[in-house]
Amino acid sequence: MIYTFIMTYRGGTYNDQVEAPTVWDATRLWAENTANDPDIEHLDAEAFRHEVENELEEFPPTPIDGCPNVWHLFFFSGRNRMDVHIVNTMTMMEPAAVGGGTVLLANL
């Protein structure tokens, strides 16, 4: 399964995709990718790792009512909230009808 993560943090929006068998496994992979991403401004990687380790068990990705295969979770990095939406997606590697690129389809 491919999971797309859309994160907002301190005025920025960041996207990532990971391949994993479950949303739980995907979230752990995403968290490690995020902690190692130098392009996320103001992120304290160690504090983020600590937050994920301490909070993910108690506050796992929450399914969004009425939206199959979509979840939400949030973390705090210091005093800053990080909102994360997760979508179970599959890629279709054909150019989009307008503008080219990859089309992402929700795996409903």
Can you describe what's shown?
The chain is of the alpha+beta class and 108 residues long. 22% of the residues lie in helices and 40% in strands. The chain is built from two helices and six strands, in the order ββααββββ. The chain is globular, with a radius of gyration of 14 Å. 21% of the residues are buried.
SSE class? alpha+beta
Q: Give the helix tally.
A: 2
Helix and strand pattern? EEHHEEEE
**Biggest beta sheet attributes:** 6 strands, antiparallel
- Assign an overall shape: globular
The portion of residues assigned to helices is 10-25%
What portion of residues belong to β-strands? 35-45%
The poorly predicted ranges are none
How confident overall, as mean pLDDT?
84
Number of E-type strands: 6
- Gap from first CA to last CA: 12 Å
Gyration radius over CA: 14 Å
Question: Which tags fit this structure?
Answer:
108 residues, alpha+beta, 2 helices
Question: How are the SSEs ordered, and which strands pair?
Answer:
Elements: E1 2-9, E2 12-19, H1 23-35, H2 45-55, E3 62-63, E4 70-77, E5 80-92, E6 103-106
Helix pairs in contact: 1-2
Task: Characterize this entry briefly.
The protein is 22% helix and 40% strand. It has helices at residues 23-35, 45-55; strands at residues 2-9, 12-19, 62-63, 70-77, 80-92, 103-106.
